[in-house]
# Entry
Amino acid sequence: MSRRNKSGFILPLTLSLIGLAMALVIYMVNNGRAFSPSAKIMIEREKARMLARSGIEIAMSQLSIPDKNTQAPKATDAKETAAEKESAPEQKEKQKETLFSFIVPRINTWQTFSLKRAVEGMQGEIGVCIMCEEGKLDLNELYDPETGKLTNDALNGIMNVVFERMQKTVGGTELRKSFEKFLKERKTKLDDVTELLTIKEFAAWKDTMFYNPPEKGASKQSKASLYLTDIFTVCSGKKTVQPWLLSDSLRGIFEVSRVKDSPLEEKKKAFAELNKSVPAALNWPDGWNKYLKAWYGKEFAALPKGIETLLDTKFEPVIFSVLCYGKVGKTTQKLFAIVERIKTSAEKDKPVWNVKLKKMYWL
# Structure
């Protein structure tokens, strides 16, 4: 009987299939390992963005506080409970809260809100910093875009001080001259302060665009901390600035006391005495020396000459900006927004304010 030798193929095929299966398993495991951390980061990022956006809602709620106390006094009830008597001082304090008393001690500083999983269903933190656009210089109001010159020559000295101290602190060359040339060639109003970065002389300001409030524990701001959108605005619609709500950068330029992250209770206590006697309208220089000197630590005579033309005499702010952050785990998302207070209805002595979102920037 003859025997024929045949080549075997089952073993090599089996080994090949096993190798292919192992390669696929290794590939999937490696991809899974890479995706798991990135998926966690993406989830945290979206949660942080949601918290940052919620910060705007918090600020808008706070800014809807009325300009003055509109609560009618509560009639005394002989059957008032002990709990009601105990909470009476707190309720009375809330009734007296106005936009003026609420915002001045908190302006330009962080308010932080911690979230707990057991209560809010999420572990995280929200930071809210409210600023006033009317505490900044509105370039569209101060300058005539057709000519590139100031609309009020009385402010010439003030603007020289502003641009000179900007150059000295952060950098840039001939900032005022280059800005006025840019505006004259443009011939239209600015749409946004960030457009100034298109001027080559402002290149040094690209890293100091948006305000950075003092961190907790910091006794004072760095002398170099000036921010472009904290000095200028295009949203206030006013040729004046609100002296009670000056931006921190403008405070630095005017060389008055800067914003500090001191305890809120300390600032409220310092402000309480002033709040008792502040009139509806101030005059200069007496109004500054009597009320604002204690707040800013400098007499009116020590301020730049001509500043009386720039200062608003009444407290009627409506345009604010809000810096918010949301933090989840190690991920932080930050945004900057412009909001406006709008009086939607008014009964007798009972104005109602709504707050509208106008612009928003993710940082």
Residues 70-85, 87-95 have pLDDT under 50 and may be disordered. The chain has two domains: 42-65+90-130+320-362, 133-315.
